[in-house]
Write a structure and sequence with these properties.
Elements lengths: L1 H17 L9 E6 L5 H16 L3 E6 L4 H13 L4 E5 L6 H10 L3 E5 L13 E3 L2 H19 L7 E7 L4 H16 L7 E5 L4 H13 L6 E5 L3 H13 L7 E7 L4 H6 L5 E6 L2 H17 L7 E3 L3 E3 L4 H4 L4
Parallel strand pairs: 1-2, 1-3, 3-4, 4-5, 5-11, 6-7, 6-8, 8-9, 9-10
Antiparallel strand pairs: 10-12
Helix pairs in contact: 1-3, 1-4, 2-10, 5-6, 7-8
Length: 322
Amino acid sequence: MRSRITMLSLAAIMASVLGHSAFAADKEIVAIYKSGTQQYFIDQADGFKKAAEARGYSSNIINVELDANRAISAVSDAIASGAKGIAITAPDQAIGPAVAKAASDAKVLLVATDDPLQKNDGSAVPFVGFDGTAMGNSVGEAAVDILKKSGWMDGANYGVLATEYQTVSVCNDRTNASRQKLEDAGVAADHFKVVAYDGTTDNALQAAGPVITANPGIDKWIVYACNDEGVLGATNALRNAGFNPEDVIGVGLGAYEACRPWQAGIATGFKAALYLSGADVGKAAANALIDAIEGTKPLPEKTVADTTIVTPDNYKDVMPCS
């Protein structure tokens, strides 16, 4: 399946490039995002646009949701329009070799944002984003700290909703690391109940419901996921199943969903979250592309942004909440 997607993707890109002429201004860069309606990617697009404008470049933001075919079309359109650089958070990492080759053949600079991509030879596309394992470690450590203070480990019937986006490697890095921190703290393997989801709130809600129903003996839950949407969906499922917020320890990843009930003063299963600045990633991606376009710096292999654990008590000091 991977090789078929790669070959079809490359063919689609090259066909589109050959069928168009470059007509855009010389100073255009493009950002392509999966799930572009999520707040994190909205913030990232804003950071990308502002950084481009500050340096005299135009920018084009394209939302492809979770559609790999739309991502392929977006890359080919960007190349055909004459863009000098492309930043992409791909819906499917399998398209990495194809888009990397197409960009290289067209002499268009390419960076992968958030989710790493590989070229045909297995080497990495220059990356801008976060360290997945470090992020997962932070989430896991926060969950362990809250769990120890809760007293649940002294005999409560608790479980862990391990909400996993299993088809994205960076998500596996995050959730595997979170699980490891909990296991290191003494949470036995049989406490973990896996919820497989697609990165969206609705899917996490739908996937978590049957898992909760299948474990009626558990009366308290820890929840972690690849992103805030996963934790939000799973905690909503717990609420629908009759669990009170005090019986849920949810640790988000992103904090843009977690902060909303905190801001509104609403009781919630979110007890903490790892704040990620999408705007910082967008700014870093734009500047890395422009530096390379102008020849002032080569594209760095990896640009990693900082993260911070926030809670209802300190989030206002760390992040905006909309």
